[in-house]
Amino acid sequence: MVDDFIAGLPKCELHVHLEGTLEQRHCGALAARHGLRPPADRPASYDGLADFLADYYAAVDCLRTEDDFRELTSAYLATARRQGVTHTEMFFDPQAHTSRGVALEAVVTGIHRAQEECTAGGGPSSSLILCFLRDAGAESARETLAASLPYRDWIAGVGLDSDERGHPPAEFAEVFSSARAAGYRLTMHCDPLQPDALLHLWQCLDLIGVERIDHGVDCLRDDRLVAELARRRLGLTVCPLSNLRLYGDLMGDAVAEMLERGLLVTVNSDDPAYFGGYVADNYEALADAGLSREQLARIARHGFEAAWLPPERRAAHLQAVDDYTAA
Ligand code: HPA
Ligand code: ZN
Predict the structure, then answer these.
(1) Does any ligand 1 atom lie closer than 6 A to the CB of residue 20?
(2) What are the structural domains, with CATH classification, of the chain?
(3) Which atom of ligand 1 is nearest to the CA of 242?
(4) What does the pLDDT look like over 90-121, one tens digit per residue?
């Protein structure tokens, strides 16, 4: 159950993988439609990132057509709306589909149609972020970037996700530089508790010039890094229920400490169909862990501050948060 204050608080989501919004039942229905074996049951928790990713990549096999991607996106946007999300920036993993023979055009067009329908139907507003799979390497990322250019107007930025071990940001410096030159905004995952976490975070700043970091909670172990992230007002997209289901720890204290230390921390759902909750459920989990309404409202503001929105739309969203908390 989500508390009324949290449900009504205008929220921005900046870290959600569309493929991670594929609910088990929806996956089963798609599998039946395409004559595939029904998906395996999902466990309540995972033993870290790689264990989760195996399930996640197996499930996407039921996504085959433009309509499948449209349906997936529509379902997420409808849930986000019910949860009080007024703007969302959604990741997708093109290589997880093109590697199975699904055309990038079908993926992107299906998602885009759902976004248009949602905007026409009262929102939330949304934009799209293309994530490269770090374990597919830099050459595949370069090919994916080139293939994305015909859809440049439909894609706001690029990110980097999947298994982080042995795949530092530096490996992708050139492709991210090309993406920037093509007009894309830049973000990257630095998942919790990964080997070389601090090195990866510094590379995001020094080599890539990212505009946000996805997760990034390990920064708290390095005072100089915290100071630099605070100085740059760099958004950190933390995902409490993801932390809980992958690492057995919500990391609510870390969120409170990030706020305390002046970081632009935001709260997001990551892969809500796997981790037991959408964005309002993540706020609720933090409330249960002791965060106050004032802290949660500050986090909601941070979401809109860190979003890739034009100034006048950002201001309107921030005003909506302020009006809500003043009421
Ligand atoms: N981290 C890395 N890869 C992912 C994630 C994540 O949080 N979600 C989906 N793919
Ligand atoms: Zn993620």
Answers:
(1) yes
(2) 4-326 (3.20.20.140)
(3) 7
(4) 999 999 999 999 999 999 999 999 999 999 99
